[in-house]
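User: Please predict structures.

Assistant: First:
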Amino acid sequence: MPATNNQTDTGARAAVLFLIAGPAGSGKSTLCDRMASDTGSFERVITATTRPPRAGEIDGVHYHFLSEEKFDAHIAAGAFLEWARVHKKHRYGTLASAVLGPLSEGRNLVINVDVQGAESFRHAAATNDLLRRCMVTVYIDVPIPVLRKRLAGRGTDSADEIERRMRTAMAEMLEKPKFDHIIESGTRDADFEALMGIWRMATKRHEKA
């Protein structure tokens, strides 16, 4: 099973896998985009989903679009590092091949996950040397009043949806101590600079390994 292979490729010593988690409205997707676009040193992990492509989306570029049957087959084969059903509809997951292959080639990766996904990655890393060596988990922490203001300010969610997201956020915050690093969210630029600092620390750690 790819997720539990005990791989030890020395080319991955300099590679970093950033797992960025945080509540809706924390800016984690923006951070992932900036790590890929601004640094020129990171690639976003392409995840899989059972939802149909939206206009302009390309299979293998935005997502790996899978049928329900194909998704089931991947689960049965142990091909996912993590997966979940979102909002009781479509399923999303991270294929081990989309992570372990690039890391074994020394390529830096960044992925936006929820706290449950991060926990699944931790379980996988417990039996995978490559993943354990490269993985750095980061939680973007936003005070509840600020988070509520951000969600309301987006103007994209109903009042009921905002309340649902707030309840989810409060539950997710209980998982903060499990993360390697916590960024106390401020401005977008400040959050990005904090993440860059964590990258520098992770690089030095690898150099000493």
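Second:
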Amino acid sequence: MTEFKSRYRVDEVPWYWWLPLQVYGWSIGALVFLYSALVSATSRISYSGYALEPDNNYIYCFWHQQVFAFNCLTPRYQRLSFFVHPLWYMKPTHVCAWLKGARHTVLGSSGNRGREAAQRLVNYLKEGDSTFFTPDGPYGPLRSVQKGALHISEQSGVPLVGINIRPTHFFSLNGWDRKQLPLPFSTIIVEVAIPFVPELENFDDAAERLAGAMDGSGD
């Protein structure tokens, strides 16, 4: 099963897998989109910490556990480019991002044209787009910062924003990260840290600062 999952990129499946991939991706992706819209419409979103400038662009960072909660914060993305794992089973994520208004979907990861994709994302950020990262994704270790987001921020000049997202009512999914699926009529608490652009020579300190911010214990 693992070998099959890693065999095809979402944009390079054989012709005989194209239709099943579309059915799979659009059915699940649309369901996730509708569910996130329901949670967004029925929940109270409470922000604290740094007040982000609405006209500025940012690189939002949060733990992989909170990816569904982030998806529920707004019904639509605002000028956001989406950096995502390119393998075929991620198709529902790509569909949901498109339905939420992502301007660009950038396909890439380590070993899957990651450097080329990262440069494309840097260019979109320089044009004024925002993006988001889960620095312990896609496979962990849990709550351990990998430095891809730091490199993207340093190269683009767009600041990192560590956020901690805590729904009051949620269902925990199985998996290494125990993803939290917020329930309708919840309160979703969002703690926003001060944005910063890391310096290449101080990446270790920057990673520690970002981890603290995503834990809700940073500045």
